[in-house]
Design a protein that fits this description.
With 241 residues, the chain is of the alpha/beta class. The protein has 7 helices and 7 strands. Helix 1 packs across helix 7 (210-221). It is globular, with a radius of gyration of 17 Å.
């Protein structure tokens, strides 16, 4: 129902794909959004499209100070923070034997440290208020391991563990893990292994569109106080994994 989410929501990785779709979905539901990503021009265009309920700031989730400043700017703009959607992620898949160490490091920095930096930026506020909601976007890779995705799956397993730990440590804070299957987004555009890049094109012949994941985020946020949707896995009906 339109207008059902009277909350201030932070979204990282908001310049495209699942992040941008989530911003549109939540704005349509009445939320106010503060959005971040590295590509400021895309954020600006999205904010201008959706109006005054959406504000933006360039963001590097691997920089803890930058994420803290992002949260401060959101609170200054809207007066409070109710929800964080940790969505930023990278997926440069490759076989372990390719020894792409810089790509491994990038996945760990964005997919794990980025999530932790987001949590660190909002958790003290939520604890002080006794309320708040952290939504971490993981992947079906948080549940499985496949060749060429060992490091990526490792990062997403970590996000799942972090989210469950957060849930157990804080009765007053809702913690949700959204685990998409294959989605037609820019994720994986940075794959440098030609064979893996070709395989990804094949996998995406059975893919969701980003709005399917955005609706799952909205569903979690729309629940009444005292109801915590801990995990949602969303796959294409014809998915192999």
């Amino acid at each position: 129902m339109a207008g059902s989410i009277d909350k201030v929501v932070l979204v990282t990785g908001a310049s495209s794909g699942i992040g941008a779709a989530t911003v549109r979905e939540l704005a349509a539901a009445g939320a106010r959004l503060f959005i971040g990503a590295r590509r400021g021009a895309r954020l600006q265009a999205l904010a201008e499209e959706l109006g005054d309920a959406v504000a933006w700031r360039e963001l590097d989730v691997t920089d803890g100070a930058d994420v803290a400043a992002f949260a401060d700017a959101a609170e200054a703009r809207f007066g409070r923070i109710d929800v964080l959607v940790n969505n930023a992620g990278v997926m440069p898949l490759s076989p372990l034997a390719a020894l792409k160490r810089e790509e491994w490091k990038r996945m760990i920095d964005v997919n794990i440290h980025g999530v932790l930096n987001g949590i660190a930026a909002v958790l003290p506020r939520f604890v002080a208020r006794g309320d708040g909601h952290i939504v971490n976007v993981a992947s079906v890779a948080a549940h499985i391991v496949v060749p060429t995705a060992a490091v990526y799956c490792g990062t997403k397993h970590a996000v799942r563990a972090i989210t469950e730990g957060l849930r157990q440590e804080h009765d007053e804070i809702r913690a949700t893990l959204i685990s998409p299957g294959v989605v037609a987004t820019e994720l994986g555009h940075d794959i440098t292994d030609p064979a893996v890049a070709t395989a990804l094109t094949g996998w995406r012949k059975k893919a969701l569109t980003p709005d399917a994941i955005a609706r799952a985020v909205r569903y979690a946020l729309e629940q009444p106080a005292g109801v915590d949707i801990n995990e949602v896995i969303v796959r294409p009906t014809a998915a192999d994994m």
